[in-house]
Amino acid sequence: MVNNNPTQDAVEIAIAFNSYFIDSVRVLTYIPSTGFLGSVLVNDTQPVFIIREVSESKVNKVISSLKNSKAKDVFGLDSTFLKNYKESLIGPITKVTNTSIGLGVFPRVWKSAIIKAIFKSGDPADVSNYRPISILLVVSKVVEKCVAEQLIAHLNNSPFTLHSMQFGFRAKHSTETANCFLLENVKSNMDKGGVIGAVFLDLRKAFDTVNHEILITKLSKFNFSPDALRWMKSYLEGRTQCVRASNELSPTLSYDVGVPQGSILGALLFSLYINDLPSVCTGSEVQMYADDTVIYVHAKSKQQAAQELTTVMVQVTKLLSDSCLHLNVKKNCLHVLHKEGNRSYGARWQCVRGEAPGGI
């Protein structure tokens, strides 16, 4: 049964899922404001990001570093196959990779994904109770990783870098250092008295709703060369997906927004997309790890913390809206921590549409 319509036909089920996954993103997309659009000139006096050709030894290392997976892409290949036969494949993959870089074109056949619908909870007959998992072409991940490593090196060795409170994709930073920094900062402020108010941002279909025009404009601010921007634009555009149900595939559908889920470049590109978020969080602390963000303040009371965070969230909501991103208002909650004696206490309130929670 799909959406209360009885069916056991795998193709019909796959079609229903594919239509839902595409349509659920389309209803969130809109024409962006002109605030983020426009070209930015390359600063030749500073390091410029240029995607450079790679050697066979680099491709060999990248293939070896891929996670083992038996998930089959649209050509029936997986990373295990690539590793088992890499001695024969390194040469051709290196040649195709360098051709892609040289032409500034990401091959169209690499832009097709197979989607697997994973049940979350609720009514199994309701397609909205499933989330999509993308299976991308395994060969495309080799090229992506080569480019991602070059981009990370550029960000870590030039003035055009990620925000200092972005703990993803930066040298000597990790989820562990992010957690330690947050805990130590919160503890230090709590020792001074008062309370800590925090909002952990939750975005609706964050990766799926990234606007390509805005992303390319933002990438140019990191001193991307015209050729690098052309390759990135080609990488993003013209993607298609189909859904696999049992052993059947739905017809493919195209989409023109978002960064590819399950990709190597996706999370990095999204981090660059929201790198300017801390600029609107005046009077608060911000900490990010890829698409995970927490905004927090040290205040004298719960009421003051709520008021200060509400003011910040108004600006955050506007910036996200201008970037074609959407807060999941039902999941963005105000968390308040305070200390009594030697013990710490916590509370949680729903924070809807930027309004301060009542009753505190």
Automatic annotation (TrEMBL):
<feature type="domain" description="Reverse transcriptase">
    <location>
        <begin position="99"/>
        <end position="349"/>
    </location>
</feature>
<protein>
    <recommendedName>
        <fullName>Reverse transcriptase domain-containing protein</fullName>
    </recommendedName>
</protein>
<dbReference type="InterPro" id="IPR043502">
    <property type="entry name" value="DNA/RNA_pol_sf"/>
</dbReference>
<dbReference type="InterPro" id="IPR000477">
    <property type="entry name" value="RT_dom"/>
</dbReference>
<dbReference type="Pfam" id="PF00078">
    <property type="entry name" value="RVT_1"/>
</dbReference>
